[in-house]
Amino acid sequence: LSSREFHPSDTVVDVDGVKIGGNEEFVTMAGPCSIEGREQIMECARIAKEGGAKILRGGAFKPRTSPYAFQGLGEEGLIYIREAADAYGLKVITEVMDEANLPLVAKYTDILQIGARNMQNFKLLQAVGKTNVPVALKRGISGTIDEWLNAAEYVVSEGNQRVIFVERGIRTYETATRNTFDLSAVPLIQKLSHFPIIVDPSHGVGIWDLVSPMALAGVAAGASGMIVEIHPEPSKAWSDGQQSLNEKRYKNMMAQIDVLTKAM
Ligand code: PEP
Ligand code: MN
């Protein structure tokens, strides 16, 4: 159902008026890795909006490597991100980590993010497939293209026909960057599937000064959008500060993206 063979034309995912895919405009989703509080997410929403993003990102349920690391604010965070997005006319994307929290997360968000660590959590994929909320499906940490396409199939075979692929880098022998950002996935997924693909240069490289060049490369590769981490004060971020852009750097990147998208 997700293959290009089955459905030759591009599927445009309509997120309550914000269209992703096909010949639609490049869509940016920006925000912090974690929602840290009401003021922080409100400030991120302001920055995101001023830079031209249409969707606010932020995690309330965080899949952390260590069980002792900050796990997210839970429902309190969902309330804050919804409030901040509404205040600035933005849509919300946030991660759902397990089936048990799906009804709660779905109540607040416009897009359900499936994290890299859950790309093959088949029960969760089936559960989001039973909703009618758009699903941003991140590529697994060691996910092959075929496994990723099959993960999408788990969602769409349950009825939900609104999937957005997110290339966020894969684990290779290279350790100088957090992941190896596989930009070839963009044209490859477009060849194999009718669903849109966006890029996540933040997790793709893990180092802030490499984010903007890779975001531009994502545009050039033909991605339908991107998801990027920003923070008012990256050095004080509770998670992923090292890969987060401050206001000035984010806005500079967005201005460059604007020039590039207009030239394409
Ligand atoms: C995130 O978006 O903050 C995140 C945890 O991403 P990933 O699942 O790609 O690691
Ligand atoms: Mn993050």
TrEMBL record:
Keyword presence, Cell cycle: no
Span of domain DAHP synthetase I/KDSA: 12-258
UniProt KW keywords: Transferase
One GO BP: aromatic amino acid family biosynthetic process
Entry's Gene Ontology molecular function annotations: aldehyde-lyase activity; transferase activity
Protein name: 3-deoxy-7-phosphoheptulonate synthase
Native source organism of the sequence: Vagococcus acidifermentans
Residues of the full protein shown: 71 to 334 of 344
